[in-house]
Known about the structure:
By secondary structure, the protein is of the alpha/beta class.
Amino acid sequence: MSSIRYYKKILIVKPSSLGDIVHSLPFLNSLRSCYPKAEIHWVVGKGFEGLLEGHPMIDRIIVINKDMWKQVSHAGKTVREAGHLLRQLRDEKYDLVIDLQGLLRSGIITMATRAPVRLGFAEAREGSRLFYNRKIAGGRDVHAVDRYMKVAESLACDTDDIVFPFPLMKNNLKETSDLIASLKDYCIIVPGARWKTKIWRAENFGKLASLLPVQSVVVGSRGDSAIAERVVQGSEGKAVSVAGKTNLRELIELMRNAKFVVSNDSGPMHIAAGFKVPVAAIFGPTSPVRTGPYGKGHVAITSTLDCAPCFRKSCRDLKCMDNISVDTVYGEIQGSFSL
């Protein structure tokens, strides 16, 4: 079953999120090295395709608008689009489908392909494991990268080298490219996160930026613009914000050339770690064991409270993040990185 000659057409199902897709890149590298002649497709969520577009290891990207699928008001359109997608995937006649997401939606997509080998995690949630005919024990208190590499190992792929193969940035960039070209010595601050509970206060990031010996570039989505401006305001002129002004490729390029990164538990943090850029990661409700910056040379600053990590997306008291002081983060950066 694991013969290189057998798998001629492979589908990876990993729609989201940014950090999770980054964590999947070493798996892609291992898979491509193991099956160099196979045709590899990837199902990705709308908004994250920029991380994979033009990737030399991927033959086709299939974009799904998963956020629209959640809206009841678009139910009719969702049913039509989902039906078309599932028929399209079935017609591709994949030899192997790998569900790295492990949720109901990704399980249904996996099953709909009718591939002879449908592979997923034994611990997959929302009943998605019922749609697989081959299950791998990934474990729970294990880093996501190592968990995905267990799948590669089950396919007889080499897992000794962990490589994050990011696509090269194209030439058709926006005006932010001028800023990228002009920056020399700088660090990056990532003040946003998908969960409110994972966000360290903007005022703390601003104070930290005022202490650092290099300019800080604050990154984030358009929705992070307000918090980014508060970081800039507290930096005493030592930070500039590009939140909402970069596409994914430009963000990748910014991360590639940074001296170090200070971040909440977030997707951009994992891009930096993939480039082996030193990361100071601030953790409250989540665990660096599972989702910390991967590899050596990074530092995870965690809350000392007994309730952390709780893995809660909402909380009336964000004391776990407030428990981490600016002096603590600055001290960790000074002790861990060459400033």
